[in-house]
């Protein structure tokens, strides 16, 4: 398996050390100086903060849908980082999506305060910097997680326990219950955007094989699992699109070279999905991330509708396994 060097971010040791050894005392001191709101005030605007991780952000799609149904007249603003901004733009129900410059905390705080939020909900369970953003955001009421050993909950007016015994979507729903919203919707992205050049409108299964951040390799399936899954879904009538970030290009091409020989005999035996040599070249250019990709956009524009089942960092299948049952119906071992 090829190794790729990712840009500094969630997996950076220097940032992690700074977040812990500077972040913890800062949150404690600044949090002690701020008078805590005891109840949720009357509000007209709600900010949602998710500054990293595409997978975690996708889980918010159901939350956003339920918030919009519950508060049809309220303004909903989602604050993202750089890595998850593009996928957040696909959500329906939001009034605004704001990309925070997470490596420039002063500017990020300025942008948060500029929105004059009534309520700010932080969906990040780990970084102290998010708790600092909440403290300095100017929001009248802040809500976030208390995660064991992280000492970040001092930044919120009200906190909810983040549990490793729950699927992450249930942790998110617990935050919503603190606002009086009983969120039950599964995450779903239903958009109407042009498909990427070379991919024709039809039913695809999107394989996003790569992870990022701290110990990202522990959150990735072995290649042979993807190859076997491809061999199982093609007979069901699906085509496959491989996605990844620009830094994943080499590994995506390698995975494509291993999947191709496994699925072409299945296609030929069923007389399905035969393409011209030119069509194959176009599809391969897109699926393996050829020169057509735009930075940050390759992941999000290859499909029309996705019902999400997602996995995350180590914590057990219960917490980071499939959010729905659709993938389990394939009978593939997870």
Describe the structure.
This protein is an alpha/beta fold and 334 residues long. Helices cover 35% and strands 14% of the residues. Helix 3 (54-70) runs parallel beside helix 7. The two termini are 21 Å apart.
Offer a quick outline of the entry:
By secondary structure, this protein is an alpha/beta fold.
Largest sheet: 6 strands, parallel
Helix content: 25-40%
- Low-confidence segments, ≥5 residues, pLDDT <50? 268-334
Identify the strand order in the major beta sheet: 3-2-1-4-5-6
Cα distance spanning the termini = 21 Å
CATH class bucket of the largest domain:
Alpha Beta
Rg over CA atoms, rounded to whole Å, is 21 Å
Instruction: Give the SSE string.
Output: HHEHEHEHEHEEHEEHEHHEH
Shape: globular
What is the assigned CATH homologous superfamily of the largest domain? Glycogen Phosphorylase B
Structural class estimated from helices and strands: alpha/beta
What is the arithmetic mean of pLDDT? 78
Tell me the domain tally: 2
How many strands? Answer: 10
| Beta-strand proportion | 5-15%
Look up the CATH topology of the largest domain.
Rossmann fold
* Helical segment count: 11
CATH architecture of the largest domain: 3-Layer(aba) Sandwich
């Amino acid at each position: 398996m090829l190794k790729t060097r990712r840009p500094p971010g969630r997996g950076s040791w220097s940032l992690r050390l700074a977040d812990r050894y500077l972040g913890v005392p800062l949150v404690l001191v600044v949090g002690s100086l701020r008078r805590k709101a005891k109840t949720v005030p009357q509000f007209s605007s709600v900010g949602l903060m998710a500054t990293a991780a595409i997978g975690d952000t996708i889980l918010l799609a159901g939350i956003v849908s339920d918030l919009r149904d519950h508060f049809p007249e309220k303004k909903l603003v989602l604050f993202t980082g750089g890595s998850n901004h593009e996928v957040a733009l696909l959500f329906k129900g939001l009034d605004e999506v704001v990309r925070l410059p997470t490596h420039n905390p002063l500017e990020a705080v300025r942008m948060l305060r500029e929105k004059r939020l009534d309520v700010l909900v932080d969906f990040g369970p780990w970084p102290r910097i998010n708790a600092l953003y909440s403290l300095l955001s100017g929001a009248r009421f802040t809500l976030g997680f208390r995660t064991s050993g992280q000492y970040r909950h001092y930044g919120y007016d009200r906190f909810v326990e983040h549990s490793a015994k729950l699927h992450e979507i249930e942790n998110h729903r617990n935050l919503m219950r603190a606002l009086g919203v009983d969120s039950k919707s599964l995450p779903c992205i239903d958009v109407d955007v042009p498909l990427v050049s070379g991919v024709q409108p039809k039913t695809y299964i999107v394989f996003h094989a790569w992870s990022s951040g701290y110990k990202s390799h522990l959150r990735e399936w072995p290649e042979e699992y993807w190859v076997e899954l491809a061999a199982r879904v093609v007979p069901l009538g699906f085509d496959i699109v491989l996605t990844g970030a620009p830094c994943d290009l080499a590994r995506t091409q390698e995975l494509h070279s291993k999947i191709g020989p496994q699925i072409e005999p299945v296609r030929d035996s069923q007389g399905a999905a035969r393409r011209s040599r030119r069509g194959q070249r176009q599809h391969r250019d897109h699926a393996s991330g050829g020169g057509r990709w735009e930075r940050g956009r390759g992941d999000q524009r290859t499909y029309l509708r996705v019902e999400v089942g997602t996995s995350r960092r180590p914590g057990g299948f219960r917490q980071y396994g499939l959010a729905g049952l659709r993938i389990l119906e394939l009978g593939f071992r997870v």
